Amino acid sequence: MAKRVLLAAPRGYCAGVDRAVVTVEKALALYGAPVYVRKQIVHNVHVVASLEAKGAIFVDETSEVPEGKTVVFSAHGVAPLVHEQAAARSLKTIDATCPLVTKVHNEVKRFAAEDAEILLIGHHGHEEVEGTAGEAVGQVRIVDGLDGAREVQPTPGKKLIWLSQTTLSVDETMQAVAILKDRFPGIQDPPSDDICYATQNRQEAIKTIAPQADLVIVVGSQNSSNSVRLAEVALEYGAKVSHLIDYAEEIQEHWFAGVETIGVTSGASVPEILVKDVLATLADHGFSDVEVITATEESLLFALPPELRKDMKAAGI
Description:
- By secondary structure, the chain is of the alpha/beta class.
- It has helices at residues 15-31, 45-54, 80-88, 99-113, 127-133, 145-151, 170-183, 197-209, 225-236, 272-284, 306-314, and strands at 4-9, 35-38, 56-59, 70-73, 92-95, 117-121, 140-143, 160-164, 215-219, 242-245, 261-266, 289-294.
- A five-stranded parallel β-sheet has the order 10-9-11-1-12, sandwiched between helices.
- Strand 2 (35-38), helix 2 and strand 3 (56-59) form a beta-alpha-beta unit.
- InterPro entries: LytB/IspH.
Protein backbone atom coordinates (compact mmCIF):
# COMPACT_ATOMS: atom_id res chain seq x y z
CA MET A 1 0.00 0.00 0.00
CA ALA A 2 1.48 3.33 -1.10
CA LYS A 3 1.47 5.71 1.84
CA ARG A 4 1.70 9.43 1.14
CA VAL A 5 1.05 12.82 2.68
CA LEU A 6 -0.44 15.76 0.78
CA LEU A 7 0.75 18.90 2.56
CA ALA A 8 -1.29 22.04 2.01
CA ALA A 9 0.26 25.35 1.05
CA PRO A 10 -0.34 27.94 2.22
CA ARG A 11 -0.89 26.87 5.82
CA GLY A 12 -0.10 28.18 9.29
CA TYR A 13 0.68 31.75 10.28
CA CYS A 14 -0.99 34.54 8.36
CA ALA A 15 0.32 38.11 8.33
CA GLY A 16 -2.08 39.25 11.06
CA VAL A 17 -1.13 36.44 13.45
CA ASP A 18 2.59 36.90 12.82
CA ARG A 19 2.22 40.63 13.55
CA ALA A 20 0.30 39.98 16.78
CA VAL A 21 2.74 37.39 18.15
CA VAL A 22 5.79 39.50 17.27
CA THR A 23 4.05 42.49 18.93
CA VAL A 24 3.93 40.66 22.27
CA GLU A 25 7.53 39.43 21.90
CA LYS A 26 8.80 42.92 21.07
CA ALA A 27 6.79 44.46 23.91
CA LEU A 28 8.37 42.01 26.37
CA ALA A 29 11.84 42.83 25.05
CA LEU A 30 11.19 46.59 25.17
CA TYR A 31 9.24 47.03 28.41
CA GLY A 32 10.27 43.88 30.29
CA ALA A 33 7.97 41.30 31.84
CA PRO A 34 5.20 41.23 32.62
CA VAL A 35 3.27 42.49 29.63
CA TYR A 36 -0.47 41.94 29.94
CA VAL A 37 -2.53 40.67 27.00
CA ARG A 38 -6.32 40.94 26.89
CA LYS A 39 -7.70 37.56 25.78
CA GLN A 40 -5.58 35.05 23.87
CA ILE A 41 -3.37 37.04 21.48
CA VAL A 42 -4.27 34.44 18.84
CA HIS A 43 -6.34 31.28 19.25
CA ASN A 44 -3.60 28.70 19.69
CA VAL A 45 -2.72 26.95 22.95
CA HIS A 46 0.94 26.46 22.03
CA VAL A 47 1.49 30.11 21.13
CA VAL A 48 -0.20 31.29 24.33
CA ALA A 49 1.85 28.89 26.49
CA SER A 50 5.09 29.97 24.77
CA LEU A 51 4.39 33.66 25.39
CA GLU A 52 3.41 32.96 29.01
CA ALA A 53 6.79 31.30 29.48
CA LYS A 54 8.42 34.53 28.27
CA GLY A 55 6.49 36.71 30.72
CA ALA A 56 3.16 37.52 29.09
CA ILE A 57 0.13 37.47 31.38
CA PHE A 58 -3.19 36.77 29.69
CA VAL A 59 -6.33 38.30 31.20
CA ASP A 60 -9.98 38.30 30.23
CA GLU A 61 -10.65 41.97 30.95
CA THR A 62 -8.70 45.21 31.32
CA SER A 63 -9.92 45.43 34.94
CA GLU A 64 -7.45 42.62 35.75
CA VAL A 65 -4.47 44.72 34.57
CA PRO A 66 -2.80 46.80 37.33
CA GLU A 67 -3.22 50.54 36.78
CA GLY A 68 -0.58 52.16 34.61
CA LYS A 69 0.71 48.89 33.14
CA THR A 70 1.03 47.86 29.48
CA VAL A 71 -1.74 45.84 27.85
CA VAL A 72 -1.80 44.38 24.34
CA PHE A 73 -5.13 43.94 22.59
CA SER A 74 -5.41 40.66 20.68
CA ALA A 75 -5.50 40.14 16.92
CA HIS A 76 -9.28 39.68 17.08
CA GLY A 77 -9.96 43.33 17.91
CA VAL A 78 -11.88 45.05 20.70
CA ALA A 79 -14.91 47.30 20.99
CA PRO A 80 -14.46 51.05 21.66
CA LEU A 81 -15.71 50.43 25.22
CA VAL A 82 -12.57 48.36 25.92
CA HIS A 83 -10.36 51.29 24.85
CA GLU A 84 -12.34 53.54 27.19
CA GLN A 85 -11.94 51.10 30.08
CA ALA A 86 -8.19 50.92 29.47
CA ALA A 87 -7.91 54.72 29.41
CA ALA A 88 -9.83 54.94 32.70
CA ARG A 89 -7.17 52.72 34.30
CA SER A 90 -4.30 54.72 32.74
CA LEU A 91 -3.14 51.64 30.87
CA LYS A 92 -0.59 51.87 28.09
CA THR A 93 -2.30 50.12 25.19
CA ILE A 94 -0.78 48.41 22.17
CA ASP A 95 -3.43 47.44 19.64
CA ALA A 96 -2.46 44.24 17.80
CA THR A 97 -5.81 43.97 16.01
CA CYS A 98 -5.33 42.42 12.58
CA PRO A 99 -5.62 45.18 9.95
CA LEU A 100 -8.18 43.05 8.08
CA VAL A 101 -10.37 43.01 11.21
CA THR A 102 -9.88 46.76 11.59
CA LYS A 103 -11.17 47.11 8.02
CA VAL A 104 -14.47 45.47 9.06
CA HIS A 105 -14.66 47.71 12.17
CA ASN A 106 -14.33 50.72 9.89
CA GLU A 107 -17.09 49.41 7.63
CA VAL A 108 -19.40 49.07 10.64
CA LYS A 109 -18.69 52.65 11.70
CA ARG A 110 -19.25 53.94 8.19
CA PHE A 111 -22.60 52.23 7.66
CA ALA A 112 -23.79 52.93 11.20
CA ALA A 113 -23.15 56.62 10.52
CA GLU A 114 -25.50 56.28 7.53
CA ASP A 115 -28.15 54.92 9.93
CA ALA A 116 -28.04 51.50 8.28
CA GLU A 117 -28.66 48.25 10.14
CA ILE A 118 -25.77 45.81 9.82
CA LEU A 119 -26.30 42.06 9.61
CA LEU A 120 -22.97 40.65 10.78
CA ILE A 121 -22.48 37.04 9.73
CA GLY A 122 -20.42 35.38 12.45
CA HIS A 123 -20.40 33.29 15.60
CA HIS A 124 -22.09 34.50 18.77
CA GLY A 125 -19.52 34.95 21.55
CA HIS A 126 -16.46 35.00 19.29
CA GLU A 127 -14.09 37.79 20.32
CA GLU A 128 -13.86 39.22 16.81
CA VAL A 129 -17.64 39.41 16.49
CA GLU A 130 -18.01 41.03 19.92
CA GLY A 131 -15.41 43.66 19.07
CA THR A 132 -16.89 44.38 15.64
CA ALA A 133 -20.47 44.61 16.91
CA GLY A 134 -19.27 46.91 19.69
CA GLU A 135 -18.48 49.61 17.12
CA ALA A 136 -22.21 50.36 16.74
CA VAL A 137 -24.19 49.04 19.69
CA GLY A 138 -27.83 48.60 18.76
CA GLN A 139 -27.23 48.78 15.01
CA VAL A 140 -25.59 45.38 14.51
CA ARG A 141 -27.48 42.08 14.43
CA ILE A 142 -25.39 38.92 14.54
CA VAL A 143 -26.35 36.28 11.98
CA ASP A 144 -24.96 32.94 13.22
CA GLY A 145 -24.98 30.31 10.47
CA LEU A 146 -27.71 29.44 7.99
CA ASP A 147 -30.38 29.25 10.68
CA GLY A 148 -29.44 32.75 11.77
CA ALA A 149 -29.86 33.96 8.19
CA ARG A 150 -33.31 32.38 8.03
CA GLU A 151 -34.47 33.73 11.38
CA VAL A 152 -32.98 37.23 11.76
CA GLN A 153 -35.63 39.96 11.92
CA PRO A 154 -34.18 43.38 11.02
CA THR A 155 -35.91 46.61 11.88
CA PRO A 156 -38.57 47.27 9.21
CA GLY A 157 -37.72 50.08 6.84
CA LYS A 158 -34.02 50.21 7.70
CA LYS A 159 -31.32 50.20 5.04
CA LEU A 160 -29.55 46.84 5.37
CA ILE A 161 -25.96 45.78 4.72
CA TRP A 162 -24.27 42.46 5.43
CA LEU A 163 -20.71 42.13 6.73
CA SER A 164 -18.88 39.08 8.04
CA GLN A 165 -16.39 37.75 10.53
CA THR A 166 -13.03 37.34 8.77
CA THR A 167 -12.44 33.64 9.58
CA LEU A 168 -15.59 31.91 8.34
CA SER A 169 -16.13 29.22 5.75
CA VAL A 170 -16.34 31.03 2.41
CA ASP A 171 -18.97 28.60 1.09
CA GLU A 172 -21.23 28.74 4.14
CA THR A 173 -20.99 32.54 4.27
CA MET A 174 -22.12 32.76 0.65
CA GLN A 175 -25.01 30.41 1.43
CA ALA A 176 -26.04 32.68 4.32
CA VAL A 177 -25.78 35.71 2.02
CA ALA A 178 -28.00 33.98 -0.57
CA ILE A 179 -30.65 33.39 2.12
CA LEU A 180 -30.45 37.01 3.25
CA LYS A 181 -30.72 38.32 -0.32
CA ASP A 182 -33.71 36.09 -0.95
CA ARG A 183 -35.42 37.43 2.18
CA PHE A 184 -34.25 41.05 1.81
CA PRO A 185 -33.63 41.83 -1.88
CA GLY A 186 -32.41 45.35 -1.10
CA ILE A 187 -29.60 44.29 1.23
CA GLN A 188 -26.22 45.78 0.25
CA ASP A 189 -22.94 43.91 -0.20
CA PRO A 190 -19.82 45.13 1.64
CA PRO A 191 -17.43 47.28 -0.38
CA SER A 192 -15.00 44.35 -0.53
CA ASP A 193 -14.81 40.78 0.75
CA ASP A 194 -14.54 40.59 4.55
CA ILE A 195 -13.30 36.99 4.82
CA CYS A 196 -9.55 37.34 5.03
CA TYR A 197 -7.19 36.24 2.26
CA ALA A 198 -5.47 33.70 4.53
CA THR A 199 -8.72 32.00 5.53
CA GLN A 200 -9.75 31.73 1.88
CA ASN A 201 -6.34 30.49 0.71
CA ARG A 202 -6.13 27.78 3.38
CA GLN A 203 -9.64 26.61 2.53
CA GLU A 204 -8.81 26.49 -1.20
CA ALA A 205 -5.73 24.35 -0.54
CA ILE A 206 -7.63 21.81 1.56
CA LYS A 207 -10.45 21.71 -1.02
CA THR A 208 -7.88 20.48 -3.56
CA ILE A 209 -6.50 17.84 -1.19
CA ALA A 210 -9.73 16.58 0.41
CA PRO A 211 -11.09 14.46 -2.48
CA GLN A 212 -7.82 12.48 -2.54
CA ALA A 213 -7.52 12.03 1.24
CA ASP A 214 -8.57 9.08 3.36
CA LEU A 215 -7.72 11.18 6.40
CA VAL A 216 -7.14 14.91 6.91
CA ILE A 217 -5.26 16.22 9.93
CA VAL A 218 -5.72 19.91 10.70
CA VAL A 219 -3.31 21.35 13.23
CA GLY A 220 -5.08 24.03 15.27
CA SER A 221 -6.95 24.74 18.48
CA GLN A 222 -10.63 24.07 19.15
CA ASN A 223 -11.34 27.78 19.76
CA SER A 224 -9.71 28.79 16.46
CA SER A 225 -12.57 29.57 14.08
CA ASN A 226 -10.50 29.26 10.91
CA SER A 227 -8.96 25.93 12.06
CA VAL A 228 -12.37 24.44 12.86
CA ARG A 229 -13.57 25.57 9.42
CA LEU A 230 -10.64 23.76 7.74
CA ALA A 231 -11.64 20.48 9.36
CA GLU A 232 -15.25 21.02 8.24
CA VAL A 233 -14.32 22.05 4.69
CA ALA A 234 -12.15 18.91 4.35
CA LEU A 235 -15.19 16.71 5.02
CA GLU A 236 -17.45 18.78 2.77
CA TYR A 237 -15.01 18.36 -0.13
CA GLY A 238 -14.55 14.61 0.09
CA ALA A 239 -12.15 13.65 2.87
CA LYS A 240 -13.32 10.44 4.53
CA VAL A 241 -12.27 11.61 8.02
CA SER A 242 -10.80 14.80 9.46
CA HIS A 243 -9.30 15.51 12.87
CA LEU A 244 -8.40 18.83 14.50
CA ILE A 245 -5.42 18.50 16.86
CA ASP A 246 -3.11 20.83 18.78
CA TYR A 247 -0.14 18.48 19.00
CA ALA A 248 1.26 15.42 17.19
CA GLU A 249 0.90 13.45 20.44
CA GLU A 250 -2.89 13.47 19.92
CA ILE A 251 -2.64 11.33 16.76
CA GLN A 252 -4.20 7.90 17.39
CA GLU A 253 -2.78 4.65 15.99
CA HIS A 254 -6.21 3.42 14.85
CA TRP A 255 -6.60 6.47 12.56
CA PHE A 256 -4.20 4.80 10.11
CA ALA A 257 -6.29 1.66 9.51
CA GLY A 258 -6.88 1.33 5.76
CA VAL A 259 -5.42 4.80 5.09
CA GLU A 260 -3.18 5.43 2.07
CA THR A 261 -3.34 9.22 1.65
CA ILE A 262 -3.28 11.76 4.49
CA GLY A 263 -3.90 15.46 3.97
CA VAL A 264 -2.19 17.85 6.39
CA THR A 265 -2.79 21.55 6.93
CA SER A 266 -2.80 24.06 9.79
CA GLY A 267 -4.84 27.04 10.85
CA ALA A 268 -3.72 30.63 10.49
CA SER A 269 -2.59 30.87 14.13
CA VAL A 270 -0.39 27.74 14.10
CA PRO A 271 3.43 27.87 14.12
CA GLU A 272 5.14 25.60 11.58
CA ILE A 273 7.02 23.65 14.27
CA LEU A 274 3.75 21.92 15.21
CA VAL A 275 3.21 20.81 11.59
CA LYS A 276 6.77 19.46 11.44
CA ASP A 277 6.05 17.40 14.57
CA VAL A 278 2.97 15.93 12.88
CA LEU A 279 4.93 15.09 9.72
CA ALA A 280 7.61 13.37 11.82
CA THR A 281 4.96 11.27 13.58
CA LEU A 282 3.38 10.33 10.24
CA ALA A 283 6.80 9.36 8.87
CA ASP A 284 7.25 7.05 11.87
CA HIS A 285 4.08 5.28 10.69
CA GLY A 286 5.32 4.88 7.13
CA PHE A 287 3.91 8.11 5.67
CA SER A 288 7.23 9.62 4.64
CA ASP A 289 6.35 10.52 1.03
CA VAL A 290 5.28 14.18 1.32
CA GLU A 291 3.92 16.15 -1.64
CA VAL A 292 3.20 19.86 -1.24
CA ILE A 293 -0.07 20.98 -2.84
CA THR A 294 0.08 24.74 -3.44
CA ALA A 295 -3.13 26.73 -3.92
CA THR A 296 -1.45 30.12 -4.08
CA GLU A 297 1.61 32.04 -2.89
CA GLU A 298 1.38 34.51 -0.01
CA SER A 299 3.68 37.47 0.50
CA LEU A 300 1.64 39.95 2.57
CA LEU A 301 3.29 41.53 5.62
CA PHE A 302 1.84 44.02 8.10
CA ALA A 303 3.80 46.69 9.97
CA LEU A 304 3.86 46.44 13.77
CA PRO A 305 1.39 48.65 15.70
CA PRO A 306 2.44 52.33 15.45
CA GLU A 307 2.56 52.85 19.24
CA LEU A 308 5.07 49.99 19.54
CA ARG A 309 7.15 51.16 16.57
CA LYS A 310 7.35 54.65 18.11
CA ASP A 311 8.72 53.27 21.39
CA MET A 312 11.13 50.94 19.59
CA LYS A 313 12.48 53.87 17.57
CA ALA A 314 12.89 55.98 20.73
CA ALA A 315 14.80 53.09 22.33
CA GLY A 316 17.02 52.74 19.26
CA ILE A 317 15.69 49.29 18.40
